[in-house]
Prior knowledge:
Mean pLDDT: 80
Radius of gyration: 14 Å
Strand content: 25-35%
Number of strands: 4
Largest sheet: 4 strands, antiparallel
Number of helices: 2
Low-confidence stretches: none
Structural class: alpha+beta
Helix content: 25-40%
Number of domains: 1
Oligomer: single chain
Amino acid sequence: MKSPELPPAGHAEVRIVAADPEAARHVAEILRRCFAATEARSYPAGADGGTRLHLTVDTTRMTEPVRSWLLTSQSSRDDHAQPDEI
Length: 86
């Protein structure tokens, strides 16, 4: 399996999956309020319905509360991809 192409430095690819399309849109809207972001691209999520949104956020352009939280938070060394992630 080929590794996915990485976004440019300072950017992150975000995937939102929700049974309710409105819930996915709410999460995308919050991300857009915190970071500069592309318009979300919407796709169906599975046979049972639902929505999958993809967007790219620019982590170099964020609001102050998010900047403070990101700078003080630490990721665990045990972080790893979930079984259903690529």
